[in-house]
């Protein structure tokens, strides 16, 4: 758990409807890489912990017989259910509103458990130990994130038709409205979110990891609406945090975006995706 911060149900309040549009997707080929390295064949069960609106779970749905997503935010669970219907996989999908700390929640055992940029919000030692016990023999835990080392500065879009998304200016605007310390639910994150996942997983009895990178670099185009959705999809700029000034913030944000790109478009590079695969360590030290 984040030191000095306590989770509350408003962490992503109001963000769910913006999430799918606002967040840049994981690198193309994520599902194919996992299918190959894990030998997935359309059977088995997937548990996606902190599933949000189901982006990862639904992207992997064809690789499993059943997918289960768990998230504490009511809006995220509702969005995931709608997306599963649209994708035609509602019959093999289950969405559970619960905190990760409430697992196993009677959900049974799984072949694969995924955390996609969600693990840092949890009581990590408790959750890692719990999901270890939810994995079937031979099952794996998969930690997925954007490749953080990649350049996302304006220089990264040189040669593309539009300016870079002005991330730094947007974040400065958020600070003007909400203060200099990062907001998160009803609290603040003075030190940001924790890292060091490898030590936590190893301490819970996992071995590895095996690391894979799905390459990015593809050119993306983003509209004003996309960037506004990105801002409101972030925990530190969730709509409820602005209170009665929410509309004022959006008006200022759109003005900033118009000044940065009068054409109404931005260029962005698709980030690569980093995958860490962890196996359960058996009592004799093997996998």
UniProtKB/TrEMBL annotation:
Superkingdom classification of source: Bacteria
One example GO MF annotation: methyltransferase activity
EC number(s) given by UniProt: 2.1.1.-
Signal peptide: none
GO biological process, one term: methylation
Keywords of the record: Methyltransferase, Transferase
Protein name: Class I SAM-dependent methyltransferase
């Amino acid at each position: 758990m984040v030191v000095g911060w306590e989770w509350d149900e408003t962490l992503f309040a109001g963000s769910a409807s913006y999430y799918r549009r606002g967040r840049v997707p994981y690198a193309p080929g994520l599902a194919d890489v996992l299918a190959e390295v894990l030998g997935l064949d359309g059977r088995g069960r997937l548990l996606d912990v902190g599933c949000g609106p189901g982006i990862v779970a639904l992207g992997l749905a064809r690789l499993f017989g059943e997918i289960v997503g768990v998230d504490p935010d009511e809006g995220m669970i509702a969005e995931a259910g709608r997306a599963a219907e649209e994708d035609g996989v509602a019959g093999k999908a289950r969405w559970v509103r619960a905190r990760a700390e409430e697992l196993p929640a009677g959900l049974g055992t799984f072949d694969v458990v995924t955390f996609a940029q969600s693990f840092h919000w949890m009581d990590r030692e408790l959750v890692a130990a719990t999901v270890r016990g939810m994995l079937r023999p031979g099952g794996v835990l998969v930690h997925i994130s954007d490749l953080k080392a990649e350049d996302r500065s304006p220089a990264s879009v040189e040669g593309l038709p539009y300016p870079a998304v002005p991330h730094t200016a947007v974040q400065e605007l958020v600070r003007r409205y909400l203060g200099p310390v990062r907001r998160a639910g009803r609290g603040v994150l003075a030190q940001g979110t924790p890292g060091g996942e490898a030590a936590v997983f190893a301490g819970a009895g996992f071995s590895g990891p095996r690391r894979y990178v799905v390459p990015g670099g593809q050119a993306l185009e983003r509209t004003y609406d996309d960037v506004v959705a990105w801002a409101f999809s972030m925990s530190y700029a969730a709509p409820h945090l602005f209170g009665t000034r929410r509309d004022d913030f959006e008006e200022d944000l759109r003005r900033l975006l118009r000044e940065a790109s009068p054409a109404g478009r931005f260029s962005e590079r698709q980030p690569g995706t980093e995958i860490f695969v962890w196996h359960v360590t058996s009592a004799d030290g093997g996998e």
